[in-house]
Amino acid sequence: MKHEKANKEIGDRGLEGQRGTEAQRQRGKRVGGNSKIQNVQSPVPNPQPVVPNTQSPVPNLDNWLEIGKIVSPQGLSGELKVYPVSDFPERFEVPGKRWLLRLDGTEPQPIELLTGRYISNKNLYVIKLAGVKTCDQAETLRGCKLMVPASDRPQLAEDEYHVLDLIGVEVFMQASGELVGTVVDIIAAGNDLLEVKLHPSFTTDKGQMTNDKKQKTVLIPFVEAIAPVVDLKSNRIEITPPPGLLEINN
User: Fold this and answer.
1) What is the value of pTM for the model shown?
2) Which of 182, 241, 188, 245 is nearest to 215 (CA)?
């Protein structure tokens, strides 16, 4: 399943062991994603200086997707290391318009991507942005995020799903019709996993409710054998889990 970070649904969880934020590779029978880059060329905007702000503005990111986070300068010529949260290399390798969310900003600002390359052993991209020519200029962008509009989502092939469209879908047992819970996240593993928050009424041990009143989550492999029915129009996924998959370890 391919992925880009859904800002209004998934928060920052660090660079290591992220859930639903790292580039999720195309594995198994169920693949998907949010959007691939449109090769949109645009005039080079003038980069805006970072102005310290003692307040903490709240970004309005409902209409944006995060594709990567700038982690540090690379070299002395203004190149930048970017940790990707998108599975689409075009986001970092194809020149054109991107948007930059600064640490003190509330709205992403347009910026021009000039070049980009992937460093496979570090799972990082090294990119060059217009107007960033020195290491000092690059340093001011540490921690800033690269964004694209949420509307930048192409049509997907059969059995491909946008991650955003899966968040919030209800999961049911196919045999009994029992409501299991709701998808709250997508996790990259050998196969992509649905993180499902269990419904309070769901039973896991011969009809006995768990002693813990707090709703728990379970991980369900998003493969055809276990999730044979995905009906986004009905907001419904039907599963046929093997014995023990949904057991809760208290």
Assistant:
1) 0.58
2) 182
